[in-house]
Design goal:
The complex is a heterodimer of chains A (114) and B (113). By secondary structure, chain A is mainly β. Chain A is 0% helix and 49% strand. In chain B, strands 2, 5, 6, 10, 11 and 12 form a six-stranded mixed β-sheet that branches. Chain B has a four-stranded antiparallel β-sheet with strand order 3-9-8-7, with no helix packed on it. Chain B has a two-stranded antiparallel sheet with strand order 1-4. Chain B has strands spanning 3-5, 10-14, 19-21, 24-26, 33-39, 46-52, 60-61, 64-69, 74-79, 88-95, 101-103, 107-112. Chain B has no helices and twelve strands. Classes of the chains: A mainly beta (114), B mainly beta (113).
Chain lengths: 114, 113
């Protein structure tokens, strides 16, 4: 069974540019989560999808971040326009419908905003 | 708000020895899960061990075990017979009802041959 995959693995962009991160969850997992780790700090929750619906987006830092999960499969996280403080590692995780405690993480996307 | 504290940014252990990683958390809830995740360099996080708060027995997975002290809100990870492959960043996490995880800042473990 393929794990959670994320693309790209690393992205370097300039302040003001747009970047789109992609996450492919484990097939059949209804729950999909986005997290972010800023250098040296804790991993913070961004949002949670159940299928294509946003269940909880309380962790989204501001309206420059837009997450979508069309069709309830893969998800994208767009940052527009990117700021320096957006740099960090963005993790995606997925879990089966009724086992939210079983979150499987992807390898992360390292975003560097210069 | 729930917080998870890992007070040891870095730890080291001799191969074959035992090491304990500390984690404390803050919550007003009585039912929750606690986790230890491991992230090897340039690889994805994997679950090491999970503890359910209502279970008094400490969870164990092969060489990994926890010391769960609910009243003290402490959840330490013990790695016995450390191996080179145990070198990684270890994150302690708390999950409240509703699926959101709260993580600590991580402990970087070095295993010395």
């Amino acid at each position: 069974e393929a794990g959670v995959t994320q693309f790209p693995s690393h992205s370097v962009i300039e302040k003001g540019q747009t970047v789109t991160l992609r996450c492919d969850p484990i097939s059949g997992h209804d729950n999909l989560y986005w997290y972010r780790r800023v250098m040296g700090k804790e991993i913070k929750f961004l949002l949670h999808f159940v299928k294509e619906s946003k269940q909880d987006e309380s962790g989204m830092p501001n309206n420059r971040f837009l997450a979508e999960r069309t069709g309830g499969t893969y998800s994208t996280l767009k940052v527009q326009p990117a700021e320096l403080e957006d740099s960090g590692v963005y993790f995606c995780a997925s879990s089966p419908r009724d086992r939210g405690y079983e979150q499987y993480f992807g390898p992360g996307t390292r975003l560097t905003v210069t | 708000a729930q917080t998870v504290t890992q007070s040891q940014p870095e730890m080291s252990v001799q191969e074959a020895e035992t090491v304990t990683l500390s984690c404390t958390y803050d919550t007003s809830e009585s039912d929750y899960y606690l986790f230890w995740y491991k992230q090897p360099p340039s690889r994805q996080m994997i679950l090491v061990i999970r503890q359910e708060a209502y279970k008094q027995q400490n969870a164990t997975e092969n060489r990994f075990s926890v010391n769960f002290q609910k009243a003290a809100k402490s959840f330490s990870l013990k790695i016995s017979d450390s191996q080179l492959g145990d070198a990684a960043m270890y994150f302690c996490a708390y999950r409240r009802i509703g699926n959101q995880f709260y993580f600590g800042t991580g402990t970087s473990l070095t295993v010395i041959p």
